[in-house]
């Protein structure tokens, strides 16, 4: 079977050629116009970034190299004994644009398991953090510290050729992905289950099989399967989302993958982005506490209005690009539908009931351009049902996942020789002058 590196070596020249053609033949073609609303509106809608692995359609949702989520669920190999997509097969697809065979997936799982141990000083660094330090802060700091062993940085210091950038970026990316489970699990254990023994990494298990084991949930097959799906699905959401974009921006300075992804994690840690899954659970539990059991649709409606009237956003609803229910939300809901224990779960029932009411309330409220749920509306609630109840940890799991797409793009950015990202900014005075003179 062809290895990941050989597959990449085969697919890179065609992409390089495609970019060369775009540069030489079409560099002056117009893709859209820049309006004042784009500049003052967080660059919404501006087509200004190259991102290879996935494209987000406002109505259909995400496609990974053209494959929708249901397509991926049909063709991407699961873990042995499992049914759900696993991050390894998603990573292979994101990196190469090809669907891996079960053998190729297993080979990648093994490589990741073999490289999964943490350097001693990183373990000590994590152990030295106060338990009260938010798990996302711990994750970002520990990922940055891994750059101690960056292959890219060492090769750059030695004076490598540009054509070698991508291979070192790939090595760092694989090492980082391999170490994320041990790193993220150590944070969980230290904060929430101190004093327990860490199991060793099992070289015969897939990445999430090991992650679940290290977290202490290895016996819970349903949770492990859910984590596989969750981590595969959150892997990439085109380039403009705040975490992916941060990794790309920082990477464009030739910072190594560890530093680039560490920066991305701190963008993911914001409540309008990845932290929303923690916020959703907090909000749903507060609703449950206030309203008790057997909550009616009418009560949820009132609760939603109370949230909105107090000036807060409804967490898990709305999106910068999507204008329909997020297909990742749908896929996670479908997972719940297949499991009797989730079908009868009070927290999942509350998520479902909220979904039945919230879009109409948000439409009536009239502010958000998208009154539908995003992936965060349910992702944390399933973890909660399965006993992983520490919701400040939820965004860490998102952070383990988003590495798939952000690191893929770093490899492609180096393979394609993409330049330093440096958009032109304008002051309000200059904008007004430009408007007057136009
Ligand atoms: N509840 C109440 N108001 C909302 C919501 C919501 N869920 N979503 C958007 N709005 C408001 C928004 O605050 C803005 O108000 P204002 O004009 O006063 O500033 C107005 O509607 C227009 O916003 P949009 O253009 O629809 O949304 P935008 O692209 O600016 O923001 C989000 C997208 C995702 C930041 C926004 O919908 C939101 O805050 N949602 C809740 C938080 C959340 O679920 N984030 C997770 C996103 C997914 N992820 O994992 O990253
Ligand atoms: C994501 O997965 O990054 C979120 O849905 C936010 C986005 O795409 O803007």
TrEMBL record:
Subcellular locations according to the entry: Mitochondrion
Record-level Gene Ontology MF annotations: acyltransferase activity, acyl groups converted into alkyl on transfer
Pfam families linked: Citrate_synt
Keyword annotations from UniProtKB, A to Z: Mitochondrion, Transferase, Transit peptide
Main location, first listed in the record: mitochondrion
One GO CC annotation: mitochondrial matrix
Keyword Lipid metabolism listed: no
GO BP term, pick one: tricarboxylic acid cycle
Active site positions: 273, 319, 376
The keyword Aminoacyl-tRNA synthetase appears for this protein: no
InterPro entries, per the entry: Citrate_synth-like_lrg_a-sub, Citrate_synth-like_sm_a-sub, Citrate_synthase, Citrate_synthase_AS, Citrate_synthase_euk, Citrate_synthase_sf
Family assignment from sequence similarity: Belongs to the citrate synthase family.
Protein name: Citrate synthase
Species of the source: Gymnopilus dilepis
């Amino acid at each position: 079977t062809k290895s990941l590196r050989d597959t990449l070596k085969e697919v890179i020249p065609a992409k390089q050629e495609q970019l060369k053609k775009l540069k030489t033949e079409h560099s002056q073609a117009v893709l859209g116009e820049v309006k004042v609303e784009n500049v003052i509106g967080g660059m919404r809608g501006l087509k200004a970034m190259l991102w290879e692995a996935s494209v987000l359609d406002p109505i259909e949702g995400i496609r990974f190299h053209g494959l929708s989520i249901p397509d991926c669920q049909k063709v991407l190999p699961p873990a042995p004994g499992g049914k759900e997509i696993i991050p390894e097969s998603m990573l292979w697809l994101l990196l190469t644009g090809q669907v891996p065979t079960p053998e190729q997936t297993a080979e990648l799982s093994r490589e990741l398991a073999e490289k999964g141990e943490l350097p001693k000083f990183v373990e000590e660094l994590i152990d030295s953090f106060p338990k009260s330090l938010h798990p996302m802060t711990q994750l970002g700091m520990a990922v940055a510290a891994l750059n101690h062993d960056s292959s890219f940085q060492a090769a750059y210091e030695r004076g490598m050729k540009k054509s070698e950038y991508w291979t070192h970026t790939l090595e760092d990316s694989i090492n980082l992905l391999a170490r994320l489970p041990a790193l993220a699990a150590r944070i969980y254990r230290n904060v929430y289950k101190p004093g327990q023994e860490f199991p060793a990494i099992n070289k015969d298990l897939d990445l999430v099989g090991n992650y679940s084991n290290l977290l202490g949930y290895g016996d819970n097959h349903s949770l492990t399967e859910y984590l596989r799906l969750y981590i595969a699905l959150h892997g990439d959401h085109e380039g403009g989302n705040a975490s992916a974009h941060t990794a790309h921006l920082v990477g464009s300075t030739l910072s190594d993958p560890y530093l680039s992804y560490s920066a991305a994690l701190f963008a993911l840690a914001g409540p309008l982005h990845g932290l929303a899954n923690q916020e959703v659970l907090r909000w749903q539990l507060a609703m449950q506490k206030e309203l008790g059991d057997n909550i009616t649709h009418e009560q949820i409606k009132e609760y939603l209005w109370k949230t909105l009237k107090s000036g807060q956003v409804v967490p898990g609803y709305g999106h910068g690009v999507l204008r329909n229910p997020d297909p990742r939300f749908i896929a996670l809901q479908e997972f719940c539908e297949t499991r009797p224990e989730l079908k009868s779960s009070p927290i999942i029932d509350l998520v479902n009931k909220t979904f039945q009411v919230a879009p109409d309330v948000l439409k009536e409220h009239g502010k958000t351009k998208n009154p539908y749920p995003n992936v965060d509306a349910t992702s944390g609630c399933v973890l909660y049902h399965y006993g992983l109840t520490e919701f400040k940890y939820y965004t860490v799991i998102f952070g383990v996942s988003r590495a798939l797409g952000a690191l893929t793009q770093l490899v492609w950015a180096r393979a394609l020789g993409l330049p330093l990202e440096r958009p032109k900014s304008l002051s309000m005075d200059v904008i007004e002058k430009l408007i007057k003179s136009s």
